[in-house]
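Bench notes, bay 3.
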Amino acid sequence: MALQKNQCFSEQFHGSFLLTNSAGEHLFLSPEDFAVFQENPEKLSDKTKSLLKSRFFIYEEDNGNEFKNIYNIKYRTKHSYLENESLLLMVVPTISCNCSCVYCQVNSRKNNSSENDMSLKTALAFCDFVFALPHKNIKIEFQGGEPSLRFDTIEFIVRRVRHLNRKYHKDIEYVICTNLMNLSAHELKILRKFRIAISTSLDGAKSVHEKNRPSTHVDSTYDSLIKNVELVRKNEIYPSALVTITALNLSRMDEIIDTYIENHFESIFIRPLNNYGCAFKNKSVYYNLEDYISAYKNAILYLINRNLNDGINLREEMFSIVLRKIFSPFNDGFVDMQNPCALGQMCMIVKQNGDVYPSDESRMISEMGNEHWKMGNVNDRNCLITMQAKRTEILENGRLENYEECRDCVYSPFCYADPIKKWYIQNIAGEEYESYCGIRKELFRFVFEQIKNADERKLSLFRRWANA
């Protein structure tokens, strides 16, 4: 029976060749086997042919229909989010804040302070909006500013949604993104009662955290954060945390990881600077992308070493998400990293004035005075109709295969389309300031390099991170 090659992508990779395909499979081949694979796969060894068949790179011509059926099932499984009934619905109770972070993207200094806060009318409309959407599983994420400054609005929304849900029976979860500088006994009671998860920011040891995230409202933003992290843990709420890398902490990655370990976190999300919104104006905190990539790689290697040799349990979230994309036959569930783009479908954000956007980045573009990505307003009875028009635009421009620079990339089966970033670079930031690919290609290349060179002990760690 003749062997047929399936469509795949390839790249020379550290003394071998990396093969990938659109079903999310990958395989490393020696240069010799890759040459034979290209010319005549029939001449490969039985072992190599078996591997290529198991990963859907070749198939026997007589079994073509069966192969295509299984391959299509694998592809649909990877892209099942397109039929997903889940939604990350972010909402902004206020853009006021008690911190002055050096990389802040939101302008909280309006002339009229009432413009900073969500009105009761808009909060009511938001609650109705939740149940007008078709999604069955909704995670409501409170963002800011500092959302806890209007905890009354948060409590109202949670109680109102709970009341309305007696009729609709949706699966509703909550999370608040907060600096945890202040936390009253009543707020803690509400967090526990309604099982509101917490996401916070820890930018490293005390000295660097307070430079990145200063405030005149407390003596120490670091001390306040750590005190309240311990408090909520005692109340069986276990916060997740991310670190934003600036020029101030770029060279202190090991110290950042040690700080997370010392404070008993189980995950760290290392995040590069995002030059959207008001942060676009603060050039002093930026760095070369190459410097970030180098620092990130060193941080991951340090983290791997500490996990394997010191018995600690801390994973990095972005690295783990990419591992999940590579190792799992299922969709990874991370809404920001999908192809076709899931923004506006699995993710959207409602500003304090009720305006709806497909992502936080598009909200930041609005903070820069450009409303191209506004989908509608929850106070408008036609909101769902206007949202659909913008969602259509996102889908039409949100496929990697439509991007010339991505079409033949070996990492495209695991990568994601971002039409909002592409539009932003073309219309605001400029390609000389930021490339569309950014860190992605180097990130995927680095993860595959770690997989290729891993022994069984390290692979076991990677699988644990991928399944976390």
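Next record in the batch:
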Amino acid sequence: MIESDANLGRCGWCGTDPLYVAYHDQEWGVPEYDPRALWEKLVLDGFQAGLAWITILRKRETLRAAFDGFDPVKVAAYGEADRARLLADPGIIRSRAKIDSAIRGAQIFLEMQDRGEDFSAWLWSFVDGRPIQGARATLADVPAQTPESVAMAKALKARGFNFCGPVIVYAFMQATGMVNDHPRSCFRHEEVRTMGVSRTFAAKA
């Protein structure tokens, strides 16, 4: 049973929707180091642009099915037939620009891999290889973007990624544990803090 926000001091942004609460309690802020999983989350954050995150959560499994489990090799090979299939799928976000961005993102992911670049290490380099531990008293203290998200967004765009402005990128960093932005009053703040480890990181190229 999910305990109440009052009992746990849970972040208020997740409201009472069971799907959103489970995402907060189990996923948000947990450090993610798997390159493919990080790419999937970046794609999903791109699909969120202009929408509420709960909309993406409700469509996440359908999106995963439509995009072959977000396998970069498969997505990178998508052609016009796949674009038409996706645009006709009512279970996903039917935006040609966002679909094209996902396909191009998979191609860039593979190009980096072919050059021997680790997508995870590259992203984590923007926080020097370990989570930034926020010390926010309340949600009102959480910024919309930071110098790190601005730098990452600029680097992603330079690589050819789209839908990755500094606000979207900061949400991505929060969700994947590069920043622990659970306020100190939230029961997950300390739990997430103990999950962070130092990693070897690549240069910010």
